[in-house]
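Translate sequence into structure tokens.
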Amino acid sequence: MKKHLIWALAALAVTAISCNKPVTPDPGPEPEKTAPKILSASLRGAGGATEIIAGESAKFTASLENDNTGTLASYSLRVMHQGWTLAMSEGELSGNSETLNIDLDLAPGAITEAFYPDVQLTVVNSNNLSTSKKLSDAENVLIKPEPAPEKLYLVDNNSSVYEMALFSPGFYKTDADLAAIGTSFKVAEKVNGSSIDESGKVWGSFPVPDSESFGLLWLGFNIATQKVEKMINFTVVADITKMAEDYGHGVFWDMEFHKDCKVVFEGYGANAEEMVQKDRFDCFDGNTARYTGHTNKWEVYFIKSEKWIVLRDHWYTSGITKCLWVTGANASLPMLPIGVRPLNWFSEGSELPTSGLSCVTRDGVIWEVLLYMKGNFEVKVYDAWSWANEQQWTSITPNLFTITPMEVDPETGKLDGNYGVAGSDFLEGYYLLKFNAETNEAGLYRYE
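Result follows.
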């Protein structure tokens, strides 16, 4: 009996001790880690202005937050326009909330029309999770060109004055006979008789540009780029009634163009400006235009079904005159209707004028072509109408297009690659593809 009493007392003691022991609650599942939040963001001018003049500074502000599962770690801000970076800012963050106030010097360079820049903010937290935000127009600042005067004055080194009328936004050109112009000139906002009025803006001095001995029809000045333009006294008449036929297309087989010459389109209707490649023609005035490409003898095709006018190098000039071709898939000429005659790897017959496109150059180094490009585009560059003349290249705008590596195709066993394809920021639309023939570097730039 005594023995059982001892065991009972011992059990009671243990129970008492265990009743007084603190109980650790079950922590449950670990909270799910979440990405940081961008509560608000905006880009504004001085005093909160929603519009600024090109060259003025702006302030970017943003309110950031992260919950208790992590802390803010870093941010990256990029301001772009047509593929060009206007401003960038990167930095470290800390804590669970922070406000960004970043002064930006926006230098868009030459602009003639107002635009909203592409502004994107990316925030990363300590869990390596990120959030990105692209500003809407309502959150953004409108960048406007400088107000333009109605006319300017060209004053040469002989004190002769030539009035320059406004031809297009930011661009002025002369109308008078330039046969007696001097060797240099300035452009002025105001004149007093034959003298420049220094109370207005003055640009220059500029040398009178070369005219290849043809003489000058006009001189022009762009106040945004501060660049002198010209039209030489050489005229190309593209008369539709004098075209030959090739696979249902009209064609001039050997038409000579000189850089900055005058081109007259006869018989194509009132809409010739919408029919041409705009990377090689500008300054349209009725049915006349300026040719801006390099001096060359072109095949000039008129695609009747689409009403396109296409300049194409002769395929047999390889090794005789410098040329550059772009071909591929899921990209096409930039004229309407879009995409009906896409690039198609040097196909011939009726596709010959549009399956591979000729580039133009202004300095013999940078070659370019304007394209409409879809998200699945793939293109290559050749310096002759031949598979053997494929150019190896590198991209200097990898956010818009990248070059695929050379790899062995497991199905064919052949080495393939070197395709230009879409980058992470690419959006379907119009692009100018530029290729440096000396460095084999290429860039893709939005065209608007």
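Note: The chain has three domains: 37-144, 151-230, 235-446.
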